[in-house]
Amino acid sequence: MLDPLSLAVGAGLIAIGWAGGRFGLRRTRSARKLPARCGCGHDLALHDRAAGTCHAENSRKGIHGLREWVPCNCRRYTGPTPLEDVFSSPILPPES
Length: 96
Description:
It is elongated and about 80 Å long. It contains 2 helices and 2 strands. Strand 1 (about 55-60) and strand 2 form a beta hairpin. It has a domain at about 35-80. By secondary structure, the protein is of the alpha+beta class. It has helices spanning about 5-25, 85, and strands spanning about 55-60, 65-70. The chain has a two-stranded antiparallel sheet.
């Protein structure tokens, strides 16, 4: 029928797994790799590479307490340099 030794071993494994998850070391949020961001808080995808302007919009409190969306004031990307710009120059579209 039911073997008491197998039931005890299974219950022990469940207890060890529960205790390990409950009291074990956890990763902190700082261990995750965050995307590269500019000083304005937006990433490289929202910045124009040629002109350097930011295409994102910020929310601010407007007239009568209503929220309004205004363009970001950032004029140049100041975040980390992308690896493709460090190792190779862009091939397409041709400049000449």
